[in-house]
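How a chain folds remains the central question behind the approach discussed here. In the encoding step, the backbone of a single protein was reduced to a row of integers, each denoting a local shape. We regard such an encoding as a compact summary of how the chain folds. The sequence in question and its structure tokens are set out directly beneath this paragraph:

___
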Amino acid sequence: MKQRSVFYWMLGIIIAAIAIAMAFYFDASVANFMATHQNRTLRNVMLNVSRFGDWWEHFLVGLGLMGIAWWRGNRKWARIFVAALIALSIAGLTGRVIKISTGRARPSVKAEQMWNGPRVSGSKYHSFPSGHVDVSMGFVGVLLLAKRRIGLACLPIPILIGFSRLYLRAHYLSDVVCGAALGIVAALVVWHFARRRIENRK
């Protein structure tokens, strides 16, 4: 059983490493494609999608769902939503620290250097990783681990948010992929510690 678990972990790490490497490789081509295929109507739609994908929107939705589950006496789902809120918070804070540390310029910004080092201010240099995607994937990741059907039904949300960030030229492909990876890791860590308490019917 332990050997199988180690195998799956190693397989997941290898797949993630390949996906991240490919994302960095295709950064420029995807950014150029998005820049040359702009549409006003679609851009407005993507702006609204990005607004929904912000940290506060996810937190408020999770808080509301947790309150509804608690009010209806479903303690299990109340705990699941608490775990999802913790995961999105961890992913968001970690992503923020990485953003400040790397200072990567956004695709829409003309800069002499892509990586500019630590920058506390200046959101135009806070591209890596995508904060919208890491938060959304952290939240949905917990739902996916708790109830696969519900998680899969919610999975298009972070995917659409990631596409919106690419289309708006706010992030490179590697920003989105690494943001998703960070969210998944946060969800796995939180679920590891919260699973027993959540599944305890007593």
About this structure: The chain has a mean pLDDT of 89. The CA atoms of residues 50 and 197 lie 34 Å apart. The two ends are 27 Å apart (CA to CA). The chain has nine helices and no strands.
